[in-house]
Design goal:
Number of domains: 3
Number of strands: 19
Structural class: alpha/beta
Number of helices: 19
Helix content: 40-55%
CATH superfamily of the largest domain: Type I PLP-dependent aspartate aminotransferase-like (Major domain)
CATH class of the largest domain: Alpha Beta
Largest sheet: 7 strands, mixed
Bound molecules: pyridoxal-5'-phosphate
Shape: globular
Length: 500
């Protein structure tokens, strides 16, 4: 049943016979099972004020549920910038997850988010529900809004913008969450990788092994500290580094391995650590897409010598801007990265070394602390969405689903499948208001930026083949089963039409 939030004007217009559409809508809500009608608890009062008799009010509100108004809804209405009644309807719809607000007066005034009775009866709501975004950054806001709002006011009143208690507390809480000794709050994930490499002493003349199928931040920091990125192909179906190919690429210049937990899929870390131990190499996990992903009971990022996270807004644990962090159990790495993020200062204006401006700001620390509380719950929801996709797409032969090995609790930052013709499928889905992405369409060794690279001319067949076939389907915790079903139905329809 689809929930509708009815404005008083709809109930009034239906009851006094002024508006046939309103009457038809109320009747549809009463007799059918397509819609469930809600209104605000203030509605009876407004109806009394409008002169309607108590028995007519009772009849009008028959089978319409009422939403109590509390201080939080009132303050959201005030803050909405809309006139109060419209703001209250908006706040209630958001809080109680009611997708459609039916109001003739506000629809006529072209307020976005409001439908008239006529628009609803003509199916306009179907156009709105049918859209499936690739990513929805709004979804977590209702859960954390009040807390973040309070924290922001506090920071603004105390002008505690740089550094500050929320960064310190986030560091403590994220360390506890990941089961590590240290977290260093930073301005982004790229700096987390860069500072870790520097703290590990990696520089000119060194080689660092990583994959070509990742975001360029993984490899650019290796070059930028003066070392050479050495690519190793990935595993089909897992998209993570193929451990069997690593030893072949180790030379006496190799200093470290940077495995990437791509899309939230964890790397087989036991294999990586075995190789690292054998050749005395450091391991920096790129966990920028793997917040809360688990490898054999341990958090992604916590198995190697250090783990880097991006808190870019679209990530599973995303800030309200740029942020990142590094986790480690190594005291020297912790101390050096703390120093590097703050211009090499050991204390104010005393510089142990040259460093960078790479600190996390207090507003982001506040947001991340509020969101961290929900990270496991949101990851569970992502896993449920992935399971729906896997079940519903299992019969579509053209779609290759991601594998999830026993050692992994995938965090599904992205849900990536392989298909023969990703661009055509994406175009078809877009025509049906379903939005997709490509992560990533060109492997790093084929990028213009790497044409002068030491190993240019080398091929990485699995990464290359995956890049030509991959498509990222909509993925965020609040995707519901109907939306996933719609995506899968459209994919199935696309391929059944092609095979006819
Ligand atoms: C795998 C990977 N590594 C590194 C980064 C860099 O993180 P940031 O954008 O926070 O600098 C990202 C960001 O998307 C990423 O996906």
């Amino acid at each position: 049943m689809k929930k509708l939030l009815l404005d008083t004007d709809v109930i009034f217009a239906a009851e006094n016979g002024e508006d046939r559409d309103a009457a038809a809508l109320i009747e549809t809500c009463r007799s059918g099972d397509e819609f469930q009608a809600w209104t605000l608890a203030t509605t009876p009062l407004h109806l009394i004020e409008s002169g309607m008799s108590p028995d007519r009010i009772e009849s009008a509100l028959q089978s319409v549920s009422q939403i109590p108004i509390n201080a939080s809804l009132n303050s959201k209405a005030f803050e909405s910038g809309l006139e109060f009644d419209a703001g209250l309807l908006m706040a209630a719809a958001e809080t109680f997850k009611i997708p459609f607000i039916i109001s003739n007066r506000y629809a006529q005034a072209d307020h976005s988010g409001f439908l008239s009775c006529n628009q609803l009866l003509n199916g306009k709501h179907n156009e709105l529900t049918d859209k499936v975004d690739f990513l929805n950054l709004n979804f977590p806001l209702h859960a954390i809004f009040d807390e973040v709002d309070g924290r922001f006011m506090d920071i603004i009143q105390n002008t505690a913008f740089a550094g500050g208690n929320h960064v310190d507390l986030f560091e403590k809480e994220f360390s506890e969450f990941c089961g590590v000794s240290y977290t260093i709050g930073l301005s982004n994930g790229t700096d987390a990788l860069r500072f870790a490499l520097l703290a590990m002493g990696i520089g000119p003349g060194d080689e660092v092994i990583t994959v070509p199928n990742t975001f360029i931040a993984t490899s650019e920091v290796i070059s930028q500290v003066g070392a050479v990125p050495v690519f190793v192909d990935c595993l089909d179906g897992l998209y993570t580094i193929d451990p069997d190919l690593i030893e072949n690429r180790i030379t006496d210049k190799t200093k470290a391995i940077v495995p990437v937990h791509l899309y939230g899929q964890v790397v087989n870390m036991d294999r990586i650590m075995e190789i690292a131990d054998k050749y005395n190499l450091l391991v920096l996990e790129d966990a920028c897409q793997a917040h809360g992903a688990i490898y054999n009971g341990r958090h992604a990022g916590s198995v190697g010598h250090a783990g880097a996270f991006s808190m870019y807004p679209g990530k599973n644990l995303g800030a309200f801007g740029e942020a990142g962090c590094l986790i480690t159990n190594d005291r020297t790495i912790n101390d050096t990265v703390r120093c590097l993020r703050d211009h090499g200062q050991s204390q104010k204006y005393y510089h142990r070394m040259e460093g960078y401006n790479g600190r996390m700001d207090n507003l982001q620390g506040a947001v991340l602390r509020s969101k961290l509380v929900y990270l496991n719950e949101w990851n569970c929801k992502r896993r449920q969405v992935a399971k729906w996709y896997a079940d519903l797409l299992s019969t579509v032969d053209e779609v290759v689903l991601p594998e999830v090995p026993d050692y992994s609790a995938h965090s599904f930052h992205l849900f990536v499948v392989l298909v023969p013709d990703p661009q055509a499928l994406s175009g078809h889905l877009k025509e049906h208001q379903i939005f997709t992405g490509f992560h990533y369409p060109v492997p790093l060794h084929l990028q213009e930026a790497y044409q002068d690279h030491a190993q240019s001319g080398e091929t990485f067949p699995v990464a290359e083949s995956c890049a030509q076939r991959l498509i990222s389907l909509p993925m965020f915790p609040e995707l519901n089963k109907e939306q996933v079903q719609r995506v899968c139905d459209e994919i199935a329809r696309f391929y059944s039409r092609k095979s006819c």
